[in-house]
Amino acid sequence: MFPSTFRRLEVFIAVVKAGGFAAVAERLGISHPSISNQVKALERQVGCKLFVRRKGLGSNVTEQGRRL
Fold first, then answer.
1. Does the pLDDT at position 1 exceed 70?
2. CATH classification of the domain holding 30
């Protein structure tokens, strides 16, 4: 279970640094839905929303996301 959690954290950090899901998908060479699924799985695991998603406007990190 640890490797999948590590990957989720890796994707989360990449999204924070890049400022959005699409940029990370392109950089990592994986699909946007895959990035979204990784982040959603991490959110379920930690029990809170990590991003405020705004269609077409990118994503902002929540306070809980900044703490993580």
1. no
2. 1.10.10.10
